[in-house]
Description:
Two copies of one chain form a homodimer. By secondary structure, chain A is of the alpha/beta class. Chain A has 19 helices and 16 strands. In chain A, helix 2 (42-49) crosses helix 3. In chain A, 52% of the residues are buried. Chains A and B meet through helix 8, helix 10, helix 11, helix 14 and helix 15 of A and helix 8, helix 10, helix 11, helix 14 and helix 15 of B.
Amino acid sequence: MELLTYSLENRGNTPVYMYIYECIKNDILTGRIMPGERLPSKRPLASHLGVAIITIENAYAQLITEGYIQSKEKKGYYVSDDMEMMALHTQGSGGHGADTINNGLNNIGSNDAGERANHISFDRDSFDSNDRVAIDFSVNSIKADSFPFDTWARIMRKSMLDHEAGFTKAPDGRGVEELRKAIAAYLYKSKGITVSAERIIVGPGTEYLHHILIQLIGRSCFVAVENPGYKKVGRIYETNGVRVLHIPVDEKGMIIDRLKDSNVRLVHLSPSHHFPTGTVMPIHRRGRLLKWAKEQGAYIVEDDYDSEFRFEGRPVATLYSMDQSNVIYMNTFTKTLAQSIRIAYMILPEKLYDRYREKLGFYSGTVSGFEQYTLAEFISGGYYERHIRRVRNQYKKCRQEMLDAINESGILEYINVTEDKAGLQLVFEIKPEYEKAAVNLCAKMLEAGVKIVPFSDYCYGLPGRYENSFLLYYSDMGKDMINKAFYLMSNVLKN
Amino acid sequence: MELLTYSLENRGNTPVYMYIYECIKNDILTGRIMPGERLPSKRPLASHLGVAIITIENAYAQLITEGYIQSKEKKGYYVSDDMEMMALHTQGSGGHGADTINNGLNNIGSNDAGERANHISFDRDSFDSNDRVAIDFSVNSIKADSFPFDTWARIMRKSMLDHEAGFTKAPDGRGVEELRKAIAAYLYKSKGITVSAERIIVGPGTEYLHHILIQLIGRSCFVAVENPGYKKVGRIYETNGVRVLHIPVDEKGMIIDRLKDSNVRLVHLSPSHHFPTGTVMPIHRRGRLLKWAKEQGAYIVEDDYDSEFRFEGRPVATLYSMDQSNVIYMNTFTKTLAQSIRIAYMILPEKLYDRYREKLGFYSGTVSGFEQYTLAEFISGGYYERHIRRVRNQYKKCRQEMLDAINESGILEYINVTEDKAGLQLVFEIKPEYEKAAVNLCAKMLEAGVKIVPFSDYCYGLPGRYENSFLLYYSDMGKDMINKAFYLMSNVLKN
């Protein structure tokens, strides 16, 4: 076929390889390049576009991983004619992927509402200013009254007295020993995880922990993230010069086969409760994932972000408990205590921990000693478990109100609820017979004063696949508000 | 000349280009390669050693920057016959540089005593365990009783009540607005710096702020740091894949000419009070530095780490006040409040700030909201200034005791004090007539139960240059202890 021509000047902040990947994907989805067609070889295409061969290699690698193209040995690259894969996409407009890349990148200082809702809150300010929103389902906030200010303040005051001398020293780069021990004990009690406090690394949020992982893993390999998923993770790696593969997720979680033949050395996922679909990765696939990791010498970041607030389904053992040499367990207190408390942690496998000691042992602590000692005592004294129980009950009540409102509102005529098992968000999709009425649903609802989140906000490309799915954060709503919102939505959908 | 042969297997964790640089430098210093001699061309040397040409280029660039070799157009690379430069080195053993690279890298979890003393504290644990140290001058600690725990706890409790709703949101990635405004007002009042709170970025320590700068500047350029200097800064950049040039410092501070013809895009220095020599960069050289930065489109990180505790000399205007488009002003509260409080900040020039918004605006805050609001009120309410005044007076008293002890001890027969203007450390050098007695002084003092710091700990290479200089952190010593230490030192030196 003739060489593909794309104007690289329009790519904005998108890395060149990503931009080329997007362009080729769009050409495939829109039929400009047909199934079975051969793609140009890497070298002539690179020279044609004036980019390095590695850039084309990276673009092709992403296309292979997502199943758009296939590499045939000694023959070259061909557009996939895999019908199932194509079927996922033919409904879509095709132009989706490239548009979403820069989505919301230019906003700053927004009322950042929650780690998993960050990219939503990017345009929240501009939205709030139009004053029409009466009911906002786009913000993942924790109820203010759930944080035990008094207990926290009392323990902090006590910690200051107990550890006065300690405060003149910078905390250990990994976190203070008392906190790491308290976390180890809590993990054993609550999840059956046995771990030495030595290998726990505390940081001011999971973002920082990813920065540490980048310094441990290096920049010459790929990192794989879930698609759809928590997009910020991929962005952190890309911003730091690490190439990212967005691996599709099916009803069993990340599709492991797509990792094969890749240079992936780190995989980020939430096997116990995928965000935002709620999928739990079944044991069989977990086994295959761990087998792959062992063979490749790759690491898996098990992000257990909402483990405290799952309300249904049997409790799932962590990946970490199945494999302590390839799995990095990661969690945060930000979601369970308060957004304002920036404390997260991860457990490093022994080999990575040795590398950390050797390469990164010189770093100072990154979390206030006051708060570390306070949290240590908060956990050891049993306050944390009590707090979790209380918040769980609050969320359970919220969730029941949400489910009641759904049942009573008559909205189930129009939608199927696809995910409601965790306490903070709900995912639904429009029934096929109402798809037409659902076109531009977000805008129509906004007209009516209700802000909901299109599921595509969590997708990297995948046009059409989740076109009729939406997400609601309802944790600070009452039943009446939710009822009203669904009443308004029914009105939109019935017309 | 014949090709140089070095065994790359012995390089440990040193980057290859650094290792080759060290090897060649040693060969020059020990006379294996003579002044005026031609070095092998890059390509054959690269292929001989089995490394990339860029690796040799980087090694040569470092050697040029430090003045060891010169590039003659169309002729090649020659060992410098600059007499002044050579004179600096001929006293030295020559083997120093390569040995210091991995110094202390393997220790972790030490009682990290102070940002400027970190690499000292690396081996402090093993040292403490030998029980012989009665007087330890190697730890830069702040007196525990200087931190106003009561005031801090009271303000924190009040902040919790005032900002309760705010704590359910993640703090702005740059820091909470109240704190950024309080810092801006303080900078205006105390240093005459006018800055919009918008462009202040708060982070959990200067190390994190350097991580942010790396993401803004990229990894394709060099970063220049002072030599001698605060070695940790260079290490942060190297750990993150940025190449570092160690630029020599003379009695006026960093030698600007060494930056010429380099690909340096970021320079880290402390022009108002160089660590650890205490040099103040005079206005003429400041002008040349800023001119260079403007021409190169480079940025200068002005690290003003000890600006609150300088006791002599006229106050120096900041570089930032001379040039707001190329200078990044950086400072920390860790040194003035408590090591345990991890709050530092920097002011980004407008152009860099725009890049920050665009590329890094998606990051969540990294410092606890509780502490940010507390510090904001602590500054705005005037408590911070009061605290600084009180600590200054404590340090002044300490310093006077130190100077008195020196005068009374008779040690001035043997040493010259070369730096005593800031409240935390003292630098002295042995008088030439006692140099022989000073060989292995640190070890001899250790025998006597006194731990002092060899100045070479702050040098990258530069063998011989500071061989007879030593540093003492005396802030938690009394006059008697200091007197005793100097008595013991006199004994060592008189023999």
